Every structure is written in structure tokens, then in C-alpha cells.
Amino acid sequence: MNKIKIYKKEPQVITGLCLLLTVMPVLGEKVPPIRALRKDKIGFVKVAEDNWTFVDTATGKTFIPLGCNYYDASTGWPPQVWKNFNEDRIKRDFAKMKELEINVARVAVLTGQPWVQRVGPFQFKANEDTLVNFSKLIEIAGTYNIRLILSQFYWEGYPRGLGNPFSDKEALQYQEFGYRILARLAQSEPIVFAYTLMNEPRNVWNNPAMFEKWNIWLKEKYVSRDALKDNWQDLKPAESFGSIKIPENKDNLNSPRLYDYQLFRKSIAFQWTKRMVDAIRQEDKNHLVSLGNVQWAVPFDRERLPGGYTAFDPRELTELLDFICIHYYPFSPHHPQPLTWTSSESEDAFTDWLYSLEAFIRFSYVGKPVLLEEFNFGLTPRGKRISDPDTLMLIARWNKAVIEHTINCASGWLSWPFQDTTTATDISNAGGLIDSKDAVKPWGKAFGDLARSIKSKKLQRAAGDKIMEIDEKKLLTSANELKKFWHNYLKLRREGITVEFSVRSPRSVRTPREDKIIPNKVNSRAGWKQ
């Protein structure tokens, strides 16, 4: 009978600053037994030799992730999963998941104060009760042989005074501290499938830390003010390294300043991702690591303004991650076709949005598995529409089509969410596999049928017919160019042509100094028809 090994450590220095590193308080007999009820021998999951599927290292069998995003829906919205941890309820939910053929559940961890408390400037302390409850979750998952993806959500209180999580020093160390705690707890648990770093990360456009790092980045990239002026043209006489303004968050086609700022934001995303992966790897070399990317992480879609592009470009991050995750919901201000709740009015749009999903997945492929970590219908039903039979069937139809359409370009699928959440303000209130009263919905039944059939398949990625070159500079600086992209791409797909992507990116994301530290080894055309 095994127990989580939890050690008490003396305060130590991390990244140059002394933290209150009571990483693992001595919990003694309060830590419940782990894996005691697990019947099946399982191993850690790794990427298979084909670089497209996953494999159980104990059995050598292919593992296809077919699951859901799980939280206890009875805790409200946003979910308060660790403040109101209900062991009995979670056990019932995992039993229901097993009935629906679910083999992976993505769960929220490092949700803020319930996990790691800020007790002073650069001083953090782990919450003992949460660590105990996490071990209970591990035991429950093991009982039902449902693997866990551990993903960071700030649902339960981002500590005040930390600053921006991607650029402020204390916030970065707070997160490193949390990831080290989590990794030390999970390192020996094969029931854990992977870590996916922060859910749908997106950086702010402007704050003091970003301004300071922006100016450092520019100096390292251009070295001299004259070189910068030659490239930009619009450099003001009063601007010099240390005082160069961040561009306005508005479209300006082919603006060198705006495009440089988008590249700088990519470098911030790269640095943050590397720091968090390194923090995990200090404690855990057994599990896979990825990142829960929203669809606006690719250059050809975003929210309305340039800052709606998250800059967590999967192609820039692939060398840091073991596999790629993408989240997709069918809505975009730049897409030519709206998708409505009236299915009879949406047949053409329905197909076009499946083509759009395919574009995100294919763009994200750079020689590693691509997991569709979140998906569902994009609109939020209101009032009676939530329980309307047509709504339930349309959600089931869309989600079933998502899996069927991407069977040759995705490596696994996780539906959002497991259960309808009545207090939610988005698709979480109606998109579940089961309803708020625990009854299986049409989508839940369809998922179970699909899972049973897919588990016996050999997934193989089908290469595209044509490579479409995209001009990143135009896309990241103009919403009109995004609309042109979608027009051209959808025209090809409607003609039956499957599309892969290459990116025209004339400037390096990283400065010369960063390139020396981390050479870019990505072959963006791997596995494509030439």
C-alpha cells in the first residue's frame, strides 16, 4: 500500500530570491493510500515511435485519449473545486465517466489560494488540506482507471499583488513554486497522463513589466537605434532604448512596430512556457507536458483587436512540449459564416466550421501528437433553449461530427464539460455529457458509442493535399487580412482540397542572444505531402 511521499524542506533559494519553501509539510497519516484499489497494471504514458499516438509504457498498448474536462458542477460557477472538495460526489462522477467509456479526465489544479497562498512578498506556502484532497483524487481516478490531465486554472482566487502571470517576477516565481509542488506529488503516479500548463493563456497588451521587457528585447534585437530606425521608419526623435512606446492595440497593416510587438509577445510566451516546464522537470521526468491553448493562439484567428492574438503559437512552443493541445469552439469575428441554433439554417456554416477546426489542428501539427483538449458548440443557449430537444440534439450532432471529421488529423479528444453547470454563463450550462440531474444526454450516449469504436482503431494522420503559405506579418497586423485568409482557405476546402500550412515569417521571434541559448530545431513541413 503506497503513500504519496511528502517531505519537509528547509527554506531555500529559488531563482535568486528566498521563498518560504515549506513545499511539502509533513502530513503523516492524513495522506490516504494511493492505488490501493487499482486493478489494472498501467504505466506512464509516452509519445509512441510514430510521433502521432500515445503508448502505455507498461503494456506497450496504444492509448487514445477519449475523455472530458471534469469539475464538480455542484460547486457553482466558476467551479470551487478545492474550496468545496466533495469526495463522495467525485466518486459518483468518476463511476459515471467509466460507464461512458471515458479514459481521461482533465482536472483543474493550482487554482489559486486553495493551492498556494501568498504569505508575504516572494513568500508562498502550500495548503496542506488541498494536498491531502489531491491525493484522494488520485486514488479515485486509480480506482476507475481514468487517467488525469492536470491543468492550471485560476478559478479560486489569484493572489493580490502578484502582477501579470507572464511578465512580473513574483508571479512567475509563485507559479514555479506551485508547479514544483504539483510535480513532486504526481511524479510517481502513472494514473496521471500529463500536465497541461495554464488554461488558455493570453498575455495583457501593456503593463510596466511588459514595457521594460519590450525595450530590452528591442535593444537585443537591433543593437543600435539607427538599425531600429531603418526598420521602423516611424521611430520618434524622443524615443530611444528604454523609452520606446508599446504600439496601440489596433490594426495597422504591415506596421513594423506592431509586428515586432507581436513577435515580442511570442518571446514572452516562450520564456514563460520554458520556465514552467523547467519547474516541473526539476521534480518530475516521468510525465508528458503540454499547454492548453485557445484557438486564438494561431496567427489566422483572434478576437477583434491585435491583442486578441494570444501569442502562444504552437509552432514556436513545440520544442518545449511533448504534444500539442488545442481548444476549439465555433465562433470568430473574422469567419464569414455565423453558426446559429437553428440547424436547418446552418448546414453550410456547419460544414465550414468543421473545416475551420481542421485548419487549427493541422496548423498545430509539427511532428508531435495534437490533442483536441476542449471542444463543444460555441454558442450559449438561454432560457428554455437549454433543455429544448433540438438544442440537445444539435450539441450532440456537432460534437460527434467534430470527432468524426478530425479522426485523421487529431490524436485524441476531450469534450467540455462533463456535466451541465446551471449557473454557468457559457456553453458549460448545456454542453455536458450528463445533465445537472446526472442523466445521460444524447451527446453522452453518442460519445460512449464513439469511444467504444475508436479504441480499437489505429490512428494515422493523413497528410494534406496542398500547402498554403500564410503571411504572418499581415495576419498579425490587420483584421481584414484575417477575413481574406478565411475566404481563401474555405474556398479550397469546399473544393475538396485538404490544406496544410507554411508560415512566411521574415523576422525571428527570439533575439540573437535567445537563439544561442535555445536553437530552433522545428521542421514545420514534417509529414506533409511535398
**What is the total tally of β strands?**
17
CATH superfamily of the domain at 1-199: Glycosidases
CATH architectural arrangement of the domain at 1-199: Alpha-Beta Barrel
Strand content: 5-15%
Helical region count?
13
Taking the alpha carbons of the first and last residues, their distance comes to: 54 Å
Element-by-element helix/strand order: EEEEEEHEEEHEHEHHHEHEHEHEHEHHEH
Q: Could you tell me the mean pLDDT?
A: 87
Strand order of the largest sheet: 6-7-10-11-12-13-14-15
What portion of residues is helical? 25-40%
Structural class: alpha/beta
- Cα-based radius of gyration, to the nearest Å: 23 Å
* Tertiary shape: globular
